[in-house]
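Figure 2 data, in text form.
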Amino acid sequence: MPESNVEFELKFLVPRRARAALRAALGGRGAKLERRRLVARYFDTADRRLARAGMSLRLRREGRRWMQTLKAGGETALARFEHEVPRTDAVLDAAAHAGTPAGDRLAGLLADGEPLLQRYGTDIRRVTRTLRTRGATVELAFDEGRITAQDRELRVCELELELLSGSRPALFTLAERWRARFGLVVDPRSKAERGDALADGRPPVAPRRARPAGLGRRLGVAAAWREVLDECIAQVLVNASGLAAPVGVEAAAGRAAVDPPEADRTELVHQLRVGLRRLRSAFRLFRDWVPPVPEPIATGARDLSRAVGAVRDRDVLAQAIEPALQRAGAPGSLQPAGGGAAADAGDAVALAAGQAAQQWLLALLAWRHGLDADEAPAAARPAEPPAPSSEPPVPDLEPPARNLEPPAPDPLAPLAPLVRRRLVRWLRSIADDAGRFAQLDEAARHALRRRAKRLRYASEFAAPLFRDKAMRRFLKRLQAVQEALGELNDLALAARHYDRGSAAGARDWFAAGWIAARREAVIAQAGRALARLAERAPFRRR
């Protein structure tokens, strides 16, 4: 009989230095291990229909038998629908999955007769152990091997923790202990995703940009909250994992490591920062409408955002300010910011793969999935036992403010009226400063920039709830405000960087003059953009 289920699992990249210790830990205390070699072929159409639909179809040899498996996205990023059919040989039969939701979707994708082709394959040596912990039974699978496509190859070394039975919070608690012990890196990519990139000639890690959150006019507050969270968390997780990937063993053929090109690394840093800002904006947008965000989640987002911002600031100096000075005729040659590109790349990897960032990422996922289970937010616990039996009460995200909002709505209440009132209030707070922008000091301008970013990200989330044309025009005006205020912030950063006091040289004096002149022009530009923004709000009923 065909076998289908929804698998819920966490994937971790294993650093090179931890491989031997992890192998030993898997077999510790007389644990019963199962060792298998898994050789698989993955199929898709020439135009990648399955990959673009978030699906994968494979034939895998497990010992002497073949198993055909169709996978598709589940209700969350960590849950995937899986349907398995035993096969007597290595002949693919897409119709074998008929009668399942994913199988019927597959049939629709192939309805025009487009053939399935083998795009890539895997050869994995897997060691598994079933571990029973308080509240859950979990399968640990340690995979080492390779993904191949044409003449390209990508090595794999990862640990998967799949929940066989029990609660998801228990799985996260166990995962945090293993993560902390071996320095594991959360990596949401499946082998199919990496194989598809390899077959397509794309790098194994690539920046993940913001996407629409998928809000609808009839969506209630609670459902909308989850949609927005999932989009923000996906952007944060993919870009953080991309930055951390070089600590692992992956390598495409002819390359020593998976260090992304400098342009991609810079974009990964930028998109991680954007993802964190969007996440924090979502916290503010839904505040008072949903249960409070746990303090460790909120402060972790803030601290990681600041750390990523420091790396991003060096990128701005090296890739924007210094070239602009060079074009303007500054004396001397280009001066690297900090330790140069190599140092910045190392800092980005160390930050993303570090203890604080990885602990927070896993805690973020645990809290998010606790929302689905109607359980208390399940932030990952400390690595060393004994684990705490309960968590202290968590305060609200920010100190209590003057109550300008109605009482917390019903979770099924429509979102649009609530969002409309909040965005109008946020826009008014920006408009209040628009008329006196030229007189604001640097701190006030920075605060205004933060409010503008928050309004922009919240407006992008809520765009489907309002009139399309008016909202597009408003977002365009808001983007112009953010760009002008962002350049002012970069100029303030540059002014501090080139202010060397008595040690200033010719290039520093040139930079100071250039920055002062450019700042005056951008202040006028920002003032005009703010005035246009305040003209009319698009937050009207459809």
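Caption note: The chain has 14 helices and nine strands.
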